[in-house]
Amino acid sequence: MRPRVYLDWNATTPLRVEARAAMIAAMEVVGNPSSVHAEGRAARALIERARAQVAAAVGAKPAEVVFTSGATEAAAVLALSLI
């Protein structure tokens, strides 16, 4: 029997161990990052730290990194940035 080859990575790409650990840690942070209370500031700090890390990894400025919830939202952000 030949080994099965899975090609639908768009549907379910496995996470790297480090990415999974970072996501689990981030989900433990409770707080609206737009709020000024301590929990909100902690959540905002987490997001800004991630933004800086992504920017450094791709050679961008942190202000150029926009997190979205999915492809449709990302396409809209990209379209607006081109206006």
Descriptive key words:
0% strand, mainly alpha, 3 helices, extended, 83 residues
Strands, count: 0
Describe the sheet with the most strands: none
Q: Helical region count?
A: 3
Bin the strand percentage: under 5%
Helix content: 40-55%
Q: Report the order of strands and helices.
A: HHH
* Uncertain spans: none
Structural class: mainly alpha
Average pLDDT across residues? 90
Question: N- to C-terminal separation?
Answer: 54 Å
Rg for CA atoms: 17 Å
Inertia-based shape:
extended
Can you characterise this structure?
It contains three helices and no strands. The mean pLDDT is 90. The chain is mostly helical.
Which helices and strands appear, and what pairs or packs with what?
Layout: H1 17-27, H2 38-58, H3 71-81
Task: Summarize it.
By secondary structure, this protein is mostly helical. The chain has helices at residues 17-27, 38-58, 71-81.
